[in-house]
Amino acid sequence: MEPLVLGTVILDETVPARAPWSAVVAAGDVLTIVDLAGNQAVDCLLYSAADTSVRYSAPETIRRQGRITLTTGSVLRADTGDALMTVVADEVGAHDTLGGACSKESNTLRYGPHTGAQHGCMENFLLEGSRWGLGARDLASNINWFMNVPVDPDGALGIVDGLSAPGKRVAVRAETDTLVLVSNCPQINNPCNAFHPTPVRMIVTRPEGSV
C-alpha cells in the first residue's frame, strides 16, 4: 500500500488495534493514514510542536470551513486560528469532528457498568501524551478519521457503520511542525469499528523537491 502523496518515506509504522501512537510531522511533510482492514476509527489530536498550548480546535476548524466534516481541502486549525495541517487527499470523503473520544466513564454511562474495565481513547491519549509532557488539561476536541457520525434532523448524533473500506487512505500535510497524537480506537460497543478494532498504518513522506 503506497502513501497518497509520494515522496521520500520518513516513517512507516503499523499501529496495533486499540493502541496509541504519536510523532512530530515536520512542516511540509505529509502523513497518510491507512485503514488497513476497513471501518476502523482513528481518534486524533494535533498540537504545535513548538508550543503545545496551541492545539487543534474543532469549533475553529468548523467555523472557518463552514462544514462539520473533514475532507480534501479542509484546513485543521488551532484555537488561535493558525493552520496546523491540511487534508490534501482523501479516499473516503467525510471524517468526523463532533463525536469526541470514548473513555471508561462514557462507556459506563452509555453501555453499562460491565464496560468499566475497558479502556478508551481518552486513556490512550493520556498514556501517549505523557511521553510529550501532556496531561488531562492539555486534551482538547479531537478528529475521528474514518468515523461516520451523521446528524439527524432533530440534531441528535448517530454512530453508524463507517464509510471506509480496506486500504482506504487520508493524507494530511503539516503546515507547521505538528505533534500528532492518535488513539487507534478500542471501542467495541458501537459500530464505529465494526465491533472489532483493527490495525492502521501511518506513513510520513517528504514530497519531491522539499528540503
From TrEMBL:
<dbReference type="Pfam" id="PF09347">
    <property type="entry name" value="DUF1989"/>
</dbReference>
<feature type="domain" description="DUF1989">
    <location>
        <begin position="13"/>
        <end position="179"/>
    </location>
</feature>
<protein>
    <recommendedName>
        <fullName>DUF1989 domain-containing protein</fullName>
    </recommendedName>
</protein>
<dbReference type="InterPro" id="IPR018959">
    <property type="entry name" value="DUF1989"/>
</dbReference>
<dbReference type="InterPro" id="IPR017791">
    <property type="entry name" value="UAAP2"/>
</dbReference>
